[in-house]
Specification:
By secondary structure, the chain is α/β, with parallel strands linked by helices. It has helices at residues 34-37, 52-69, 88-102, 121-129, 142-145, 158-171, 192-202, 221-244, 252-262, 298-302, 314-318, 322-331, 343-346, 368-384, 389-396; strands spanning 15-21, 73-79, 107-114, 133-137, 181-185, 206-210, 250-251, 278-282, 287-289, 306-308. Strands 7-6-5-4-3-2-1-8-9-10 form a 10-stranded mixed beta sheet. Helix 2 packs parallel to helix 3 (88-102). The longest helix is centred in the middle third of the chain and has 24 residues, at 221-244.
Length: 402
């Protein structure tokens, strides 16, 4: 069976992704934001902005860790809060710090996730210079976007966000790295075929849709009904993507689902000897922690360790049992999912949506009904497009097995 994956061993990680919280506050007030409105307000106890000095310290820490563990690539993902509150000149100095210190030992790439409301031509210049990949948060057209994404005075953020996307798409004709991707939080009231058409009309070619932050403590018949409605919306989006029939348009959940159909064997996750992408979150107070996408499992997440970079090197951080524990939990299927026909394509869903106080991560995802609606629909669409019914049967078994 071999030795289990150990992230603190050299050559165990292909890429270290550091989600760097350079601004721990936000200029808008999204009602679904976990950091500020749904249970986790720890960011308010940290400095509002990361300093250039702290960034240099972080860059040196990452560089030493990459040299020690022989990690060949580093992705720095600038997040917040709202990272553009950090100002373009400070951001440029941060990029320089990472390139100066990490560049000699590992390849460095940059990305930024922004709400798009502070963007200007100074930011355009800096993003071009450092070839920063850009993600914009937008939930759809004006009505859908402004359902949740208002500023602190309750005003719309739609027009300025849309204008930022238009500016970046136009500029990408000269500087291709500027073409933005989008992230949208799902809502059962939205027409996602229309959302897909809207984002395509803006020139978006890469999209990602996120489930709202919930965990399995919320499981109830009404929640299942709402999840099924979200799944139906995603199926509408998939159908619209099929109609356009453009392989250059990438929607993350579609890429993952179709990747399964293109493989000859079930891609069940298993503990690995080498991980393609290990995520750490770095904060403005010079601490690091596990991936904060797990925050919906709040009671568990709040008890996970944080590490001061002045006191612990990267090897010491990754030696903490929480990292192989996450890998093990991710690779395990919840007991209730073992008879589900969709288990090989779903794998139980995202870890944070499986957490409950009673059973830990041994629960079906709170979005189980969404996955069932989506995958059954995708199979029907594919069969109607000529995909063999016998292959669907081979992969998923009896259609009455749920």
């Amino acid at each position: 069976m071999g030795k289990p994956w150990d992230p603190s061993e050299p050559n165990s990680i292909e890429c270290l992704q550091v989600v760097y919280k350079i601004a721990e506050r936000c200029n808008i007030n999204c009602s679904y934001c976990y950091y500020f409105n749904m249970g986790d307000d720890t960011a308010l106890g940290r400095p509002a902005r990361a300093s250039v000095g702290s960034t240099i310290n972080l860059a040196k820490w990452i560089a030493a860790g990459c040299a020690d563990l022989r990690i060949p690539r580093v992705n720095i993902s600038f997040h917040g809060g709202e990272p553009m509150l950090a100002k373009p000149d400070r951001f440029a100095k941060m990029c320089e710090a990472f390139l100066t210190h990490i560049g000699p030992v590992a390849e460095v790439r940059f990305a930024i996730q922004t709400n798009g409301t502070i963007f200007n031509h100074d930011w355009l210049r800096v993003l071009v210079k450092y070839r920063v990949s850009i993600g914009i948060s937008i939930d759809g057209d004006r009505a859908d976007h402004d359902r949740f994404r208002l500023d602190h005075r309750g005003r719309s953020t739609f027009t300025v966000t849309e204008n930022t996307i238009r500016t970046l798409v136009e500029a990408s004709a000269v500087f291709p790295s500027l073409r933005p991707s989008t992230i949208s939080v799902l809502d059962r009231h939205v027409d996602y075929a229309a959302t897909f058409r809207y984002l395509r009309a803006l020139g978006i070619m890469q999209m990602h849709f996120l489930f709202p932050d919930r965990n399995a403590n919320d499981h109830a018949p009404q929640v299942d009904k709402e999840a099924a409605e979200i799944g139906s919306g995603l199926l509408d989006l998939f159908t619209e993507w099929m109609i356009e029939d453009n392989p250059d348009i990438h929607v993350r959940f579609i890429d993952r689902a179709l990747g399964y159909f293109r493989q000859g064997a079930s891609p069940k996750p298993v503990p690995r000897r080498r991980k393609s992408n290990q995520v750490l979150v770095a904060r403005s107070d010079e601490t690091v922690a596990i991936d904060d996408s797990y925050i919906p499992a709040l009671d568990w997440y709040a008890a996970t360790p944080e590490f001061a970079i002045a006191d612990t090197n990267l090897r010491g951080v990754l030696a903490d049992p929480v990292f192989p524990a996450i890998e093990t939990e991710t690779s395990k299927l919840p007991d209730a999912c073992t008879s589900c026909r969709w288990q090989d394509i779903c794998h139980g869903g995202d870890l944070e949506n499986r957490f409950s106080d009673q059973n830990g991560f041994n629960n079906p995802s709170v979005y189980c009904a969404a996955y069932k609606e989506l995958y059954a629909g995708i199979c029907n669409v594919l069969m109607n497009s000529g995909y063999p019914q016998s292959e669907i049967q081979r992969r998923f078994g009896d259609e009455h097995r749920v």
